[in-house]
Amino acid sequence: MVIHLATCLLIGSPPRPSLPHFKAFVESAYGLPVVIGSHPIPQKYMDRHEKLPFWQDNKISEMAKPLLDEAREIKVA
User: Fold this and answer.
1) Which residues contact 57 (CB under 8 A, 6 or more apart)?
2) What distances in angstroms separate CA 63 from CA 38, 49, 73, one per listed residue?
3) How far is 25 from 14, CA to CA, in rounded Å?
4) pLDDT tens-digit readout, 17-75
5) Are 66 and 23 in contact (CB under 8 A)?
6) Secondary structure of 41-68 in the HEC alphabet?
């Protein structure tokens, strides 16, 4: 069993810089692996959000990387 935290927790507003701590808490408390993100991030959404200061300030791009490894036709949809 794996717990998936919704993608909107990562890239929604307001930013949640404590998300890695929450992930660690859930894994520790329940002994289950946690994945941040439940679906890929559309490229046009990424293009818009990468320009926002909180994106780099909170290292969201690092946490979002696994959600960006999608085929190009999916990203541009």
Assistant:
1) 15
2) 13, 14, 22
3) 21
4) 788 999 999 999 999 999 998 888 887 888 888 888 877 777 787 888 888 776 667 66
5) no
6) CCHHHHHHHCCCHHHHHCCHHHHHHHHC
Number of structural domains, the chain?
Answer: 1
**DSSP code, position 76:** T
How far apart are the C-alpha atoms of 74 and 52, rounded to whole Å?
Answer: 23
Q: Which domain holds residue 71?
A: 3-75
- Give the Cβ contact number of residue 16 at 10 Å: 19
User: Which residue, 13, 20, 22, 5, is CA-closest to 52?
Assistant: 13
CA 8-29-24 angle, 5° bins = 50
